Amino acid sequence: MNVNQSAPPVPPFGQPQPVYPGYHQSSYGGQPGSTAPPTPYGAYNGPVPGYQQTPPPGVSRAPPSSEAPPASTAQAPCGQAAYGQFGQGDVQNGPSSTVQMQRFPGSQPFGSVPLAPVVSQPAVLQPYGPPPTSAQVTAQLAGMQISGAVAPTLPPVGLGYGPPTSLGSASGSFPNSGLYGSYPQGQAPPLSQAQGHLGAQPPQRSAPPQASSFTSPASGGPRMPSMTGPLLPGQSFGGPSVSQPNHVSSPPPQTLPPGTQMTGPPGPPPPMHSSQQPGYQLQQNGSFGPARGPQPNYGSPYPGAPTFGSQPGPPQPLPPKRLDPDAIPSPIQVIEDDRNNRGSEPFVTGVRGQVPPLVTTNFLVKDQGNASPRYIRCTSYNIPCTSDMAKQAQVPLAAVIKPLARLPPEEASPYVVDHGESGPLRCNRCKAYMCPFMQFVEGGRRFQCCFCSCINDVPPQYFQHLDHTGKRVDAYDRPELSLGSYEFLATVDYCKNNKFPSPPAFIFMIDVSYNAIRSGLVRLLCEELKSLLDFLPREGGAEESAIRVGFVTYNKVLHFYNVKSSLAQPQMMVVSDVADMFVPLLDGFLVNVSESRAVITSLLDQIPEMFADTRETETVFAPVIQAGMEALKAAECAGKLFLFHTSLPIAEAPGKLKNRDDRKLINTDKEKTLFQPQTGAYQTLAKECVAQGCCVDLFLFPNQYVDVATLSVVPQLTGGSVYKYACFQVENDQERFLSDLRRDVQKLVGFDAVMRVRTSTGIRAVDFFGAFYMSNTTDVELAGLDGDKTVTVEFKHDDRLNEESGALLQCALLYTSCAGQRRLRIHNLALNCCTQLADLYRNCETDTLINYMAKFAYRGVLNSPVKTVRDTLITQCAQILACYRKNCASPSSAGQLILPECMKLLPVYLNCVLKSDVLQPGAEVTTDDRAYVRQLVTSMDVAETNVFFYPRLLPLTKSPIESATEPPAVRASEERLSNGDIYLLENGLNLFLWVGASVQQGVVQSLFSVSSFSQITSGLSVLPVLDNPLSKKVRGLIDSLRAQRSRYMKLIVVKQEDKLEMLFKHFLVEDKSLSGGASYVDFLCHMHKEIRQLLS
Ligand SMILES: [Zn+2]
């Protein structure tokens, strides 16, 4: 049962170190005592993360012990380390653990629920920044400014940021939005921890009374006593002296007693003199702001405090102020600029270390020797030469790899290279595949490996002369010598059991319990399959798919169907011994669709009738997967199971689960258990599936808690997908479900895959994120891999890198195509290396960084309290930016926030991750929603995480109706909404149409065919098809947005001031969130403070 089919003579992925251990040697990790590897970016040169866990019981079938633990049990279920690689202590990473350990109390509000006091500071920047007359926040090239205006959105004193009191009742009544479709189950009220701090919602867009609106004069926040050390006690908040231009980092003096919380009683609000607010010019990268005049100190809270340094200026009252949202870096602007600057020219990959255009830019790629950014995106295209530099910068070095990415029609799929019986040419030592970076020497008779420097003989049949530059004269005739991406046909040595694989099979496994029948799911699905089976994936010009199909229905027992073409009617075989699952028939179970069409159609007609009167409500789950996997094993093929499942599997069987949902665990140390599987049985099962090349796609239709965290284990570890349709009703949800199903069934999949990432000397892959399984530290095993899934790989130094030679990555994916062909897909990428940190910061990609950081955090919640995870992210971000400030930016006042151009969106995007449902859930978000999103993000590519964390908000009536292009987006903030307009908001999973209360009657009529705003049905999910330009435009735009995403987004129409608006506002990510997430402005100020603390 070795999933890796490496043949002894030429182990395809053989490295010096690992031979694939049999599965009996390793488990999935969940066993107690399993060791978690060190943090990905904590210890450079630390030990390699171990994916090996302690041995499993050695039982291949689901063990009887799969009985769920008591729901109330405090101890982690045995599967808790399933995702392994993130030990609790490992979250405490960072270059300086002391920073982590000494979390400043002042930073806590951002990492925990009691947030309001900090984010409510209207002038968060102020207390830490220099005094108003010269306070300056400079975003590099961003013209970031501080306006003198009082924050119009600030709530009055005493009002928290909590949900309106109506939230509790509203939360249960949101329509089924898909992701947030909530159940009528008792929704927990807002977190108890939060209630102490959350109050009524601040009045929307109404300016509070100015001077009285601040709970505190932003007293500077508590600091660790040590932070005050270098400064004179009692120093006031003053900027650095003008005589100290290089003094980047004086911490504001601290007079608060240690431990003082910002949640303490507010001090007197400082008088407001907005006229004192100077305007600030746009600051170029690292440039100084205007010369600083005398700096008033912060005044009132600490009377008598001496001014900072030699500043003669008398203390002046400081007017509260906020950052002008228009002056802080705008995601919309950055996206727009990149489109304008880089969208017109193709991205040619011939140059090493080029940063590609943003994922939000449409561009064509020309492969000239490096893999397209559609296949690989990196956090930085210029890697520090030494691990010391890397540690200093704290910028994670990671690649988000999508090996089977779909390409636009204008770009060619990778060429397939056939080296005949000898197979692909590889380095003898490190087994890297022939690629454009290999150096041919000795007249072409040998080549030097670009990864390990080994000199290899060129086989006679591959020999070619070199030109005067040392290049083979046939270099441009051979994809493997001239392109970044290509495929090799694999020889039999790369096949399991030294046998070419059979074509894969699809098995449809349909829950026919009461819920599935009643909702109309079974009838809908059976009807759809009749036609969908004609569209199974095929390759090239094949007339017919090679994929065979089989059918199973189940509730507490399983029903197998014989659909052999020679039968007049399908035959059913029932297996009720679910504890010892076997497949009762081989011949006639997996069939060719066209041969057995009549029998299959008859079966699909009969299934809904057969179970129409069922009263069976209980289901099993693990035995269903077991059965599918056994069937593939018997047929000696890889394949995919499509499971359609409705409920928590409580029937007596292996993998039986209990309802252990408990919202009271949120914000406790036990919260992580909500994300962990409640039994190890599914990991054991997944391991068997991977060995068989059995990928599992799960479609869930829950009416209540189904324990997504546990049910998604097998899909997650087999490279499968999970779809969730809460409270599924045919009339409301069929379009979404059918659209997802069609796409899922039709997409090309690589089966029984193994991926290995090789690197040139000096760095190595140390950590991996995604939907896959690993039984050793280097090989990513994927029962299935489709074109939507990414594998994220983190690299660390193990030696010094060389500026001249750069660094190389080679990703090799061995897989079985849908037609049953064994292939290797190779992607190569060359990166630059630098000895100056500035080069690193100039060549970073923030979208990819965020993708990595989100995945890192989302894995972290399996083992650590979410607050710890959030704090880790904040610390890391601050360290990244502080390192830039210290080493790369021109010296300037510490009062200036200076962001590297490539990372100026890091704070806003990171804040979106921090307040996402996984890390800071709102009251309406269920445990299953969080587990679902958590596993979705794990496999997302960079474009998906970009829009998921920062949704697109498109105004619809501003641009001309005739315009064929998408309207320019606006920032995701309520301030940007005009009540006379309508907007589409999408994040890849959700789609809203927000209608302003004052929208013109003509617009209402054109879109909704009703005469007034009040007649629009809130929660509508389909727009009427009307024959007018606006209706056509909006519906066309919706279709276009859906086509861009890998999952169908169900539309929800939201009216301004309607209760549904709450749901919509959840996605206005620049604003404060109801669950306590900071606004962009507040977070930026907080980040500034953190940076200053690090610099001081
Ligand atoms: Zn080599």
TrEMBL record:
Residues 501-745 form the Sec23/Sec24 trunk domain. It is a peripheral membrane protein. Residues 1-108, 150-329 are annotated as: Disordered. It is found in: Cytoplasm, Cytosol; Cytoplasmic vesicle, COPII-coated vesicle membrane; Endoplasmic reticulum membrane. Residues 8-19 have a biased composition (Pro residues). SUPFAM superfamilies: beta-sandwich domain of Sec23/24, C-terminal, gelsolin-like domain of Sec23/24, Helical domain of Sec23/24, vWA-like, Zn-finger domain of Sec23/24. One of its GO terms (biological process) is COPII-coated vesicle cargo loading. One of its GO terms (molecular function) is zinc ion binding. Keywords: Cytoplasm, Cytoplasmic vesicle, Endoplasmic reticulum, ER-Golgi transport, Membrane, Metal-binding, Phosphoprotein, Protein transport, Transport, Zinc. Residues 24-34, 90-101, 166-176 have a biased composition (Polar residues). Residues 965-1037 form the Gelsolin-like domain. Residues 424-462 form the Zinc finger Sec23/Sec24-type domain. The keyword ATP-binding does not apply. Belongs to the SEC23/SEC24 family. SEC24 subfamily. This is Protein transport protein Sec24C. It comes from Ursus maritimus (Polar bear).
